[in-house]
Amino acid sequence: MKLQIIFLLLFSFIYISKCQNIVSPTNYTLSYLESIDMRKMKCTSDKDCPQYSKCNNSICKFGDFLCPEPTDGYLMSLNIDPLCVYVDATKYDLDKEEVKKGTSKDIKPILKTCGFVYKIHCTTEKCNKNSDCLSGMCLNHICMNGDNLNYQIYRCSLDGDQNYSMKCKKVNGMRCGNDSECYSNTCTSGDGNNKKYIIPKYCSKTSYTSTVFKNVLIGFGILIGMIIVFLLIYCITMYFKNR
To answer: Which among 70, 174, 186 has a CA at the least distance from the CA of 115?
Structure first.
């Protein structure tokens, strides 16, 4: 019985530790990460580098961060923590916005955010209250950007082109004006054909309009295939009928 209790406690400790280590608080701000010039951060080992960075080829290279940035929204009375959180990229895929295999999906806060227009086409891990979400809004068990946020969430990661600076852009689900504002480089309204109304645009992994077009092409292909099969069956039936 004692061994079972010990095993249960050990398992629980490992599970909780693994879950909590995906996201860690930092003292970094968005402006600090945007200003980093890693060429000035020389090192011989990881001990020479700032927190959440590692020594790589004698230069301190930083990891991945998510940063809330206050804006001039009408909810500025809310207490928004402007400090960034570190995301362990070995356990969470920021590009796919999902936990990697072998890691518990029960993480809080939930990092993924759905734009309000995309609530039909976008889902996140299940939330029960606003504090479960990094966005601060849980609606129908989905972490949302309800267009009334008084802050935007930015992703800061090592810029693959320069290798010495951080690329800091808005994450998916954030309001945007053009592609250059988004880390995914895609800012879409979800309805590119509607000219009558001004529809909010959000950063997204893929363009919703291109996804719809792709689905239309797939549906059209299926329809053509069914017609061809019907014609073949008809021709074969008529052939044997006239013999």
So the answer is: 174
* Per-residue model confidence as pLDDT tens digits over 26-77: 999 999 999 999 999 999 999 999 999 999 989 999 999 999 887 765 444 4
CA–CA separation, 201 and 120 (whole Å): 15
pTM of this structure: 0.71
Other Cβ atoms closer than 10 A to 71 = 13
The reply to whether 153 and 230 lie within a common domain is: no
Do 201 and 224 fall within a single domain? no
Asked if residue 123 is part of any domain, the answer here is yes
Round to whole Å and give the CA distance between 85 and 134: 10
Same domain, 126 and 111: yes
Length of the chain, please? Answer: 243
Q: How many domains does the chain have?
A: 2
Asked whether the predicted pLDDT for residue 191 surpasses 70, the reply is no
Q: Give the percent of the chain with pLDDT over 90.
A: 37
112 within 8 A of 173, measured Cβ to Cβ: yes
How many Å apart are CA 173 and CA 117, to the nearest integer? 9
